[in-house]
Amino acid sequence: MNTDINLLSHTDEETLRKNKSTKIFNLIAAVFLIGVCLISVSIFIMISTVNAESKSIRKEQADVLKKMSKFQDRQVKLFILSNRVENIDKLLQTRRDFPKISNGLLVKVPSDLSLSSFEINDSSVIISGESKSLLTISEFIGNLTDMARRKEIIKSLTLNSLVLDDSDNTYVIIVSSQL
């Protein structure tokens, strides 16, 4: 028989160091495992609280969008109304001021001349009147001629007709002018 065989193991320092380092690595692995588990659980809890908060935020967002849609209709109406007012203002600025034109011309009509018609359009004015005196008609024509010379309201003046009405002994005048 062999006497050199020793069935009992001797613990030597190298084996003890290996066992000790294995225990340390096992401990470190367990600590990391527990740390990863704790981090995972905390992240799960954070995500679930954020999701719960995001549901309330989504509800608030939907409510705000509903309220904004009501105001959006009003905003569209106000925009259309504002646009119409601007367009009307532009039209009024390009349009001739007929009351000013008619008042400017009527001031030049002598008191003895009675007007039978007064027509204004965008480009011309036609005035017809009658008087018993040629002096009144001359004054009227002189006033309009001065206005045409100064380009005050009218640019030109045309005497369309001057007729004596024998039945009531009045002079009838028709003048036209370009604006």
What does this entry look like structurally?
- The chain is an alpha+beta fold.
- It has two domains: 12-95; 98-178, 2-Layer Sandwich (Gyrase A, domain 2), CATH 3.30.1360.
- The protein contains three helices and four strands.
- A four-stranded antiparallel beta sheet has the order 1-2-4-3, with helices on one face.
- β3 (156-165) and β4 form a beta hairpin.
- The longest helix has 82 residues, at 13-94.
- The radius of gyration is 54 Å and the shape is rod-shaped.
- The mean pLDDT is 86.
Task: Provide a compact summary of the structure.
The chain contains 3 helices and 4 strands.
Overall structural domain count: 2
Structural class by sheet pairing and helices: alpha+beta
DSSP strand count: 4
The order of strands across the largest sheet is 1-2-4-3
Fraction of residues in β-strands: 15-25%
Q: What's the rounded overall pLDDT mean?
A: 86
Describe the biggest sheet? 4 strands, antiparallel
Instruction: Compute the separation of the termini in Å.
Output: 147 Å
**Tertiary shape:** rod-shaped
Portion in helices: 55-70%
Tally of DSSP helical segments: 3
Uncertain regions spanning at least 5 consecutive residues: none
| Element order: H for helix, E for strand | HHEEHEE
Q: Mind telling me the C-alpha Rg?
A: 54 Å
